[in-house]
Amino acid sequence: MLIRIVAMKRAISLRIAAMTLALVAMLLTACDHRTIYDRYESTALSGWEKNDTITFAIRPLKEAAAYRALLGVRTTDSYPFTSLTLIVEQEIMPAHRVLVDTICCELTDEQGKVLGDGIGYRQYQFEVRQLQLQEGDSLHVVVRHDMKREILPGICDVGIKLLKE
User: Fold this and answer.
1) What does the UniProt keyword field contain (predicted)?
2) Class of the 33-164 domain?
C-alpha cells in the first residue's frame, strides 16, 4: 500500500513537472519582442456611427527605432459592403506632429471571396505606415470611418498594432 502511494505521488509530480515545462516552453515561444502595442476597441452594437471615433493611447517608447503601424478590423456577416474606408490620425507627442492616413480596406477579392480570417467574425489587418520614432515619443491614434452611410453595422472591433522593425 505504501509503495502504491509513493508511486502515485511520483507520477503526479512528474505530470506537474511536465505541464510546467510545457507551459514555460509555450510562453517563451509565444513572446514577440517586436510587438510594442496591440489593442482592439469595440464599436457600438447598434452600428459604428460616422461621428464616433475610436482612440488608442500608446505610452512613451523605450527606444528610438523604425516602427510599423497596422490597423486591425473585425467584422460580422452583417457588414453590407465589400470594402471599408477608414481615417487613421496619429499624433506623435511631444512634438505634436500629426499624420493622417486614409486606409482603403478591401474585404473581398474581385470574385467576392472574403479575404479575412475567421468564421463568425472575420479579422483583417492593413498596413498604415512606417514611423521613425524617438525614445520617449508616444502616440495618440484616432480611427473613424469615412463611408457614406452614417451608421455602419457589422464592424465589431477596430485595433492598432505597433511593431518595432
Assistant:
1) Lipoprotein
2) mainly beta
| Cβ neighbours of 130 (radius 10 Å) | 11
Listed by start position, the domains of the chain span 1-31, 33-164
| Chain mean pLDDT for the chain | 89
| Pairing mode, strands 155-164 and 122-133 | unpaired
Region 84-100 average pLDDT: 97
